[in-house]
Amino acid sequence: MKNILYILSMVLLVLTSCTKDFEDINTNPNAPINAQPSLLLRQVIYDFGEQMSYEGFAAGDLLSQYRTALDFNLFGRHDLKSPQLGGNPWPIFYKNLRDNQIIINQSQNTLAFKVYEGPALILKAYLAAGLTDLFGDVPYSEAFNGVNGTVTPKYDLQEDIYLNPNGILDNLNKGIEAINNYSGVQTLEGDLLFNGDLNGWVKFANSLKIKALMRISDKMDVSAELQAIFDEGNYISSNAENAVFDFTNSAPNSFRMARLRIGDFNNYVLSETMEEILTNYNDTRIGFFFRPFGNSTNGEFNGLLNGVDATSTSITLADYSLSGTAFREDTSVLDANFSTAWETSFFLAEAAQKGLITANAQNLYETGVAQAFEYWQTDLPANYLTGTAAFNAAGTTPLEQIITQKWIGNVINGYEGWTEFRRTGFPVLKTLQASLNNDLIPVRMPYPAEEAALNAANYDQAAAATNNNSINVPVWWAE
Questions:
Q1: Which UniProt keywords are given for this protein, alphabetically ordered (predicted)?
Q2: Is the pLDDT of residue 242 over 80?
Q3: How many Cβ atoms sit within 10 Å of the Cβ of residue 381?
Q4: Which residue from 64, 206, 207, 306 lies 20 to 30 Å from 238 (Cα-Cα)?
């Protein structure tokens, strides 16, 4: 009996010791339990940039009429509830907003991570703006917190997402303030956009403020804020300062269209809308964006009217221009584009033209055009800005010229081109060959079907506010 008790005592001692030291013994010191903010920052920037560049090409370019899809094109015919090769940005935004929120939480609770607070707040504003600009009212204030939050978040009004505390404009201001107040010695690691340069993040934030203020400029007076940013001049003003990261020329970091089957790539050809605009401007960038059609004898380009019904229309691929080599054979010349100097210049040109700031609209317009040509690695023709692309060209207006030039530059960021069309009406887009939306150009993305299943009560309320989740009900800033 004495031996049995001794053995039991030893077993209990071992079990107690094992339990007491279990966490220390079974934790790999080289595999931290919580993801480091540097790894998360790199992941958020890369994942969002890579996925939305593909989405911008495969789906956004159809909505903006840069390209036409020959097949698998219910989305191209404006059946937006049936994404084919693209057209599902909702989970991309929410995954990265969730991961970015982890960075914010870490930076606000751990002194060693304080350097990440400003950039993460700026990224949250950037991602939230892109999300709400596409869908309108979306889950926001109760979203992104994972296990610490609700799995059925309410839908916030777009107006509130832009204007409320912890909304887009507030987070941009807080992000700038956090960077300006940072006095630590830690460096910002995992930064694919600015390589740790915090001043680059401040310029990025100010460019995003210009963009956000212009988006809502038809709803309220934003002139004083715009003028202050313009006068300070601390925004992205040259292509060397752009918020972008480079794709490579080989997997896994090449542009995704280069990694798909040749048939998927060949599904996209030049849109008739894009061809007419570039041809009217004698725009030499057409040779970067597209290649002459296969049956061409003189290096011509040919576009196809969007929204073809592939089940009833026979298309000869060689009769239409495919995308340029930059989108498949040499993707190292492409960027994942978050914000650029030319985009900022065009927003400021618009602001000046509308009298929202005191500045020379024509100079800003011409600067934007030159920057966009440089960005797309094409020499600006000497007579480009004195011909049909001139600021005051006959038959058009300066505002139409500004928005159309910004639209051209947003190739690969097709959702941006579509968003600016929804806000301004420029450029004039064409009626589809075989519309599945009663010949109407959609003015918002629909909420995905899984929202109705997983967040039913909140979804029902948001759907009711958009005429049963209609793609023809404008978002708040476009009402």
A1: Lipoprotein
A2: yes
A3: 15
A4: 64
